[in-house]
Amino acid sequence: MNGNDATAFNLTQHTPKSVIKIAILGAESTGKTSLCRDLAAHFDSHWVPEYMRTYLQEKWDSEQKTCTWDDLLPIAQGQIDLENKLAKQTEQTTGYLFCDTSLFELMVYANWYYGDCPDAITQAALIHHYDLILLTKVDIPWVADDLRDSPHEREEISVCFANELIRHDKQFRRIGGNKYDRVRQVIKWLKYSE
User: Fold this and answer.
1) How far apart are the first and last CA of the chain?
2) What percent of the chain has pLDDT over 70?
3) Model-level pTM?
4) Is there a contact between 36 and 149 (Cβ–Cβ < 8 Å)?
C-alpha cells in the first residue's frame, strides 16, 4: 500500500457510546504501555497496543530500516483499525478502553521528525474523541530498545506534546510517579468523572 495515497486510508474513529476511552500519550520510555496494561488488568478491560511499535519492529527486524514518511499513513490506519476493533469488543465488557497512544501522538511525532504531517492524519487526530487524555511525565528511567532514539530529548518532546494539546484545546492531565501511584491516580480520576 502506498503511504502517500491518502485516499487509500480510512481513519474514522468508531466508538460505541457505552465505551469510555482513555488515551495515554507521551515521550518514549515514559511508561505508557505499562500503565495501559496495569489499568486494563485492574478494570478487567481491553487496552490498545501502540501499532507503530509492532509495525516498525517488523520493519527493523526484516530490513534494518527505521520509520519514513511513507510509513505514517499505514501506521495511522493500523492504529485506528486496532482501536476500533477493541472499542467494539469493550462494549461487551467494563466499558473502559485504554489506548497506548492515538493519532494525536502520531501527528506530534510526524511534525517533530519531519516538520510536517499528512493532512489525513492531522484531520483525524484533531476530531477523534477521548474521554480522558493522560500525558506521562518524564520521571522514570529511559530504557533502550531497537526503536527508541531520543534519551536526551524526552523532556523537550513532552513539552511539545503539552503545547500541542493546549493549542488544539484538548483537555489533559499529567500522570507520573511509580506504577502503583499512576494506577491509583487514574482510578481516582475515572471514579470522579462517572
Assistant:
1) 42
2) 89
3) 0.89
4) no
CA-based nearest residue to 101, from 155, 191, 16, 28 = 28
Q: Order of strands, edge to edge, in the sheet holding 132-136? A: 46-48, 96-100, 20-25, 132-136, 173-175
**Best CA proximity match to 102, nearest among 11, 193, 3, 10:** 11
- What's the pLDDT tens digit per position in 122-180? 999 999 999 999 999 998 776 665 555 566 688 999 999 999 999 999 999 999 999 99
* Type of residue found at 172: F
Structural domains for the chain: 18-193 (3.40.50.300)
Q: What are phi and psi of 84, to 5 degrees?
A: -65, -40
Q: Within 10 A of 58 (CB to CB), how many other CB atoms are there?
A: 10
Mean pLDDT computed over every residue of the chain = 89
Contacts of 100 (CB under 8 A, 6+ apart): 24, 32, 33, 36, 47, 48, 49, 50
Neighbours of 25 (CB within 10 A): 26
- Find the largest Cα–Cα distance for the chain: 47
| For residue 2, pLDDT beyond 50 | no
